[in-house]
Amino acid sequence: MRIRAAVLHEPGRPLAIEDVELAPPREDEVLVRVAAAGVCHSDVRLADGELGDGRWPLVMGHEGAGVVESVGARVRHVAPGDHVGFCIVPACRTCSECRAGRYHLCIPAGENGPRGTLMDGTSRLSLPDGTPLQHALMTACFAERVVVAAAGAVKLPPELPLWQASLLGCGVVTAFGAVHNAARVDPGDSAVVVGCGGVGLQVIAALRIARADPIVAVDLDAAKLELAAARGATHTVESGSATTAARVLGLTGRGADHAFEVVGRPETMRLAWDCLRPGGTAVVVGLAPQGVEVTLPAIEFLSDKGIRGSYYGSGDAAADLPRLAELALAGELDLAGVVTSVEPLEAVNDALDRLRRREGSRTVLVVDRALAGR
Ligand SMILES: [Zn+2]
Ligand SMILES: [Zn+2]
After folding, report:
1. Per-residue pLDDT tens over the stretch 240-283
2. How far apart are CA 152 and CA 176, in angstroms?
3. Ligand 1 centre distance from Cα of residue 257 (Å)
4. Torsion of CA 341, 216, 312, 362, to 10 degrees
5. Collapsing DSSP states into helix, strand and coil, what is residue 175?
6. pTM, whole model, 2 decimals?
7. Which of 7, 148, 177, 134 is closest to 84 using CA atoms?
8. CA-based, 20 to 30 A from 276: which of 65, 261, 320, 348?
9. Taking ligand 2, which is a single-atom ion, which protein residues have CB atoms under 5 Å away?
């Protein structure tokens, strides 16, 4: 079938909204009509060619939600009409990582995601002239419809408006998992969050729900710090000077139990490290361009400090997405609050430019107004 989609032909050029061909779902796949999609900073990294060569031409978009239109013969967990959020790591549940419970590190998903294919190593997308197109992170949801692996479509309660549900599958699950699965924050733990964009604000929301205290938000931008305070930060620190770490240490006693880096730059990773107490751990959530290295004062390993990464929530996204949707329906998690722009798909290049300028926190692209509920 022919659909409208946002295509990256080569990095550095604006995305083109154009007609592409979408092949029907195979037996382990699902066809979904897209309602809305979130624009994430990793879309900018991909569009600017910072995640490595060979990632184009592709249909962009990896955070979104929609309504199932048809399912392959072996799909049982969803049916036409179901509301679903997209999961960019459709875990196979049989590889060695999956069997060990590390679904976010699923081996075939990890191989096929950067390759731009679905789980069987092939693409359902092509240009009208037959040129194959890649699927961004097995999702490609800056488009009217997607075909995803069965596990890439996670059933959600239909009461949650899809324009809000669209945020769950990348930014929200990444942030909540970093707090609950990677850092394992306990009530009363102190935490600092470096970077208050779309994901950083969700880290703050997750810390509030985990009853961390204090929660110190750090950002260069005073407007983002205001959003951070509204989402539960107990203190805010404007960064960009040599005294940033000292001010955070002043607010947390000897330093924070947990530091979250949600920017993806070596200087903010170092800042997160510098804000820790002896024995504290930094969790790097931010995505750095390929080739970037970070240096740390090695003597400080003597104080039992640690630093670790966290990918896609470090857990089981298929189980976490419905839980996060329930939290949103219960009023515990404000999804609308991080959205600073709601625009049609055609405005995708403006949304990417705002992220390049580090302006605003999250844009939701409405692909189908009636389905999106907005
Ligand atoms: Zn993302
Ligand atoms: Zn697996």
Report:
1. 999 999 999 999 999 999 999 999 999 999 999 999 999 999 99
2. 19
3. 26
4. 0
5. helix
6. 0.93
7. 148
8. 320
9. 91-92, 95, 98, 106
